[in-house]
Amino acid sequence: MNRRRTTAVIATAGALALSVLNAPAAQAKDTGIVVSNLVFNNGKPIVVGTSKVSETPVPFNIALPSGYTVDGIGRWRISPFLYRGNLKDVAKGTAKNSLWTIPYECYEQGSQRARCEGSLFINPDPYMEEVDSNSDATTWKIGVYLALFPAGDGPVLAEEYESRSGTVSLRRAAKLATADATPEPVTKGKKLTLKSKLTRANWTTKKNDAYAGSTVSLQFRAKNATSFKTLKKVKTNSAGALSTSVTATTDGFFRWVYYGNTTTGTATSGQDYIDVR
Questions:
Q1: HEC-encoded secondary structure of the chain
Q2: How far apart are CA 211 and CA 169, in angstroms?
């Protein structure tokens, strides 16, 4: 059975933050809104580069208190977000590091219950000030802003900022240059030289910098095989460059794979096909 889409919330992060900061003081009481099954990016790290806007799925379920319905969007607001530091600073509007989930659409599962599908957009543009330091590549906490409003105009009836269990890892995007094997073609039993270069996003300069001292796997897939096998692991030099040699045995594809770390995302190079004669 198709669920009826009852709500679409479209806003900008700046508009949302401004509305929260300018809202009249709310009564200090529980809103009665229940948010469950909230997950950022399917539980995986969020990887952000130097120019492209990152879009992360943020699904969650909602249950509204008595007197409120899913289609009465003007009378309630639910905004999941990520933050660093103190939740009280987010509530006061003084926290520098907070990332808000907008927009979202809700699919009715009853008059007071719905499954919502949101997105977290992270723009590395320096004017957005969302990720403007490499120190932002770390663990972020999860929070939810909840609010109730009266019918028509009027002050906020109740609002709260909830912290949630779990965290989200924000990481700098990595890139590997296409694998370069020489000589081509190669005689069977002779040595092949494999090269590449590993870089990662620098959120301060908005450029990709060489990533030195990182371990990268050289992999090979024979022409008629279905999977790659790791041949060896190689560390990048001070310029992020990779270079190693292997013995040519059969036709196939070479690639490099970087598996990432707590601050940096994974990367896979383009493949280079080698004809062994």
A1: CCCCEEEEECCCHHHHHHHHHHCCCCECCCCCCEEECCCCHHHCCEEECCCCCEEEEEEEEEECCCCCCCCCHHHEEEEEEEECCCHHHHHHCCCCCEEECCCEEEEEEECCEEEEEEEEEECCCCCCCCCCCHHHCCEEEEEEEEEECCCCCCCCCEEEEEEEEEEEEEEECEEECCCEEECCCECCCCEEEEEEEEEEEECCCCEEEECCCCEEEEEEEECCCCCCEEEEEEECCCCCEEEEEEECCCCEEEEEEECCCCCECCEECCCEEECEC
A2: 19
For 189, left (φ over 0), alpha (ψ -120 to 50), or beta? left
Strand arrangement, sheet containing 158-172: 46-48, 158-172, 139-148, 76-83, 98-100
Task: Report if pTM > 0.70.
Answer: yes
40-91 confidence digits (pLDDT tens):
999 999 999 999 999 999 999 999 999 999 998 789 999 999 999 999 999 9
Asked if omega into 155 is within 30° of 0 (cis), the reply is no
Task: Evaluate whether 65 touches 190 at the Cβ level (below 8 Å).
Answer: no
Torsion of CA 199, 203, 205, 208, to 10 degrees: 10
* Angstrom distance (rounded) from CA 30 to CA 83: 21
